[in-house]
Write a structure and sequence with these properties.
The structure holds two protein chains of two kinds. Chain A is mainly α. Chain A is about 75% helix and about 0% strand. Chain B has helices at about 10-30, 45-65, 80-95, 100-115, 120-140.
């Protein structure tokens, strides 16, 4: 119960009036930006990163926690009222939520999403506080080979196993790894793919990549399409409160969603997509009235929304304890940490326990603030959806470019941002997943140096990776996860041929 | 296996395949030019060779897929994309020639609004100017970040 004492101490830090103010600002900004159509949590965090540049690490991390959770809440509002999910994890929420809104039940849909998010986040953050110290104890004994194995799993699960097409996912990952090569190698000082451009020697900034791919890419994509589909936000009619029946139908999906979301998020299994889809199918199977699914079943909002938020809190477990980002949002968060020269991982818990536990405590506080903000004030956020599309995207682009040149005032950086925007546009157009690029950029160099450290320690013997049971198991899992979709697909095709 | 449609090769997939091969080639060339060698195990070039191989494999995959994938990305409003590109280009040009953040961002705002179908140039110009000036004042004065200066910025 050592962690409980630390957590209490963390609350001491987080309840400091100044830090409370930071949390409140973070929550407000996070919700406001997250509500905007086409902007998911990853982009919300990336766009708001420059605002926290000049604050002290403690305060800005706390603000960050608020932005992260706020972006998650805001994203579900857009999915329900506008049917334009900001990221793949809200796709499922949009399925039933938008149907509910069309049938005049937008209020209860928003309410069950907000309360479900609150319940899930509360439980999952408790899980984080409980499991993180245990994992830190294990992780502190990890050798570089173990880290290499873990990263392999993360690569494969993020890109290959669950995407619509493994070839597209792996291609995204390859591009991310390629971008990760650019710059000076940490171990030898060798420049890779810099082509003599001084700006490239420092490598590609994660925030520049994320903002380019998500914000600029999205703006270009929406510009190319908006003539052909015109979504208008649906006004909330009737009571926003949930009826007694809504409560009865919602509470079990919340808990089940949490139970599905947290472990999957906490494992390096990548993203909130899988748990939301799993939760959706589970609820459809267990529902009293399965025929309502597709027409606005409240269970189909409650479960996936809870799963989404629980897995978001879950991804903080590998991020904080191992320094491993397993989703685009986590990758951007990691960039935020690195901005203050903090390297998440087991050592962070030892060296800066006040920071880590202050952050965890503020996650609890941000969660409560968000429930208060979202339930009564949801009407206010909905107004943001009424900003005309031209001004909205013009504003997003101005803000996105501003963030990049504020962080690194150079024309070359801006050109890179635009180039990544074009890349993001092409990827969106031809249906390539974007998260593997961001994860590849961050994890690529980390995996490279972990592998080379292992080989240095074994004097060049590659068997070192297989001699340690931990790394051997993890590499086995990664290989299995990489080959499984191809094998199963092959089997399926084989069977079809038999017919 | 079903036979591919009569349209034959899927052009975009083919282009992506060629781009991936090109990237793989550049990476391989870059790796083979590296000077620093590691004492034990792998040097800095090993990862480059790996990524080059990976990219080439993906390129080969796309080459095969070009015969199978046929999904059309749907209608595209290239004019709108062009307007956004013009906006981004103006911001880059503004910074390149030292016209400053406010002028560049205002142009970006106006052209992007045009891309999404607005034609009220004057109103958008005013709104963009207010927004850009607001952002500049907030970040340069309040948060002391340095946004690029130009003639307009020096007035403050």
């Amino acid at each position: 119960m050592e962690s409980l004492a630390f957590l209490m101490q963390g609350f001491g830090t987080a309840l400091d009036p100044m830090n409370l103010a930071f949390a409140a600002i973070g929550v407000l900004l996070g919700t406001a930006v997250g509500v905007l159509p086409g902007i998911g949590p990853a982009l919300t965090v990336a766009l708001l990163l420059p605002i926290t540049f000049k604050l002290d690490p403690g305060g800005s991390l706390i603000m960050f926690a608020g932005i992260y959770y706020g972006g998650m809440y805001g994203g579900s509002t857009t999915a329900i009222l506008l049917n334009t999910p900001g990221e793949s994890a809200s796709v499922v929420t949009a399925l039933e939520g938008n149907q509910m809104a069309r049938r005049g039940r937008g209020g209860p849909a928003l309410a069950t999403a907000a309360i479900g998010s609150f319940v899930a986040t509360l439980i999952a953050t408790m899980g984080l506080a409980f499991f993180a110290p245990l994992l830190v104890k294990v992780a502190i004994q990890f050798g570089p080979w173990d880290y290499f194995g873990l990263m392999l799993i993360a690569f494969v699960t993020v890109s290959a196993t669950f995407g619509s097409s493994p070839l597209r996912g792996l291609t995204s990952l390859a591009i991310g790894l390629w971008l990760g090569l650019i710059g000076i190698d940490q171990l030898t000082g060798q420049a890779r793919l810099a082509f003599g451009v001084p700006n490239l020697l420092d490598g590609v900034e994660v925030t520049t990549l994320a903002v380019g791919l998500f914000a600029i890419g999205e703006a270009l994509h929406v510009a190319s399409r908006h003539l052909f589909n015109d979504e208008k936000p649906i006004a909330i009619k009737g009571s926003i409160w949930m009826s007694r029946q809504d409560w009865r139908r919602s509470w079990k999906p919340w808990l089940r969603g949490t139970a599905i979301g947290f472990p999957i998020g906490a494992l390096p299994a990548g993203g909130a997509e899988i748990p939301t889809f799993l939760s959706y199918t589970t609820e459809r199977k267990l529902a009293e009235k399965p025929e309502e699914f597709g027409q606005g079943a409240i269970e189909g909002v409650a479960g996936p929304e809870a799963a989404n938020n629980a897995s978001a809190a879950g991804t903080l477990v590998p991020l904080l304890t191992l320094g491993l980002p397993t989703s685009a949002t986590a990758a951007v968060m990691l960039a935020g940490f690195q901005q203050y020269n903090l390297q998440p991982g087991p050592l962070l818990f030892v060296q800066h326990p006040d920071l880590v536990w202050g952050l965890v405590a503020s996650l609890f506080i941000a969660n409560v603030m968000l429930l208060v903000l979202n339930l009564p004030l949801v009407g206010l956020w909905v107004r943001l959806l009424k900003i005309p599309l031209p001004w909205l995207y013009a504003g997003i682009l101005v803000f996105a470019c501003m963030g990049t040149i504020a962080a690194n005032p150079s024309v070359v950086e801006l050109m890179m941002l635009v180039a990544f925007g074009v890349l993001g546009f092409i990827m969106r157009r031809y249906d390539y997943p974007i998260a593997p690029v961001v994860v590849g950029l961050i994890l690529g160099p980390m995996a490279d140096s972990a592998l080379r450290r292992s080989l240095q320690m074994s004097l060049g013997d590659p068997m070192v990776l297989l001699q340690h049971p931990g790394s051997a198991t993890m590499i086995g899992i990664a290989v299995f996860a990489l080959l499984a979709p191809f094998v199963f697909k092959g089997l399926a095709r084989f069977r079809q041929d038999e017919d | 296996m079903t036979t591919p449609t009569a349209r034959g090769l899927h052009r975009p997939t083919l282009v992506i395949a060629v781009a991936l091969f090109a990237l793989a080639f550049i990476t391989w060339r870059d790796a083979s030019a590296m000077q620093i060698r590691a004492t034990y195990g792998m040097g800095a070039d090993a990862a480059s060779y790996f990524v080059a191989l990976f990219l080439a494999l993906m390129g080969a995959g796309h080459l095969v897929a070009a015969f199978r994938w046929g999904d059309d990305p749907g209608p595209t409003d290239w004019k709108a994309v062009g307007w956004v590109a013009l906006g981004l280009g103006s911001l880059i040009a503004a910074l390149w020639f030292g016209a400053g953040f406010i002028i560049g961002s205002t142009l970006l705002f106006v052209f992007t609004a045009r891309a999404f179908g607005r034609r009220a140039w004057l109103a958008d110009l005013a709104l963009g100017l207010i927004l850009a000036t607001g952002i500049f004042l907030l970040f340069n004065k309040l948060l002391t970040l340095s946004l690029p200066m130009g003639p307009v910025e020096r007035l403050f």
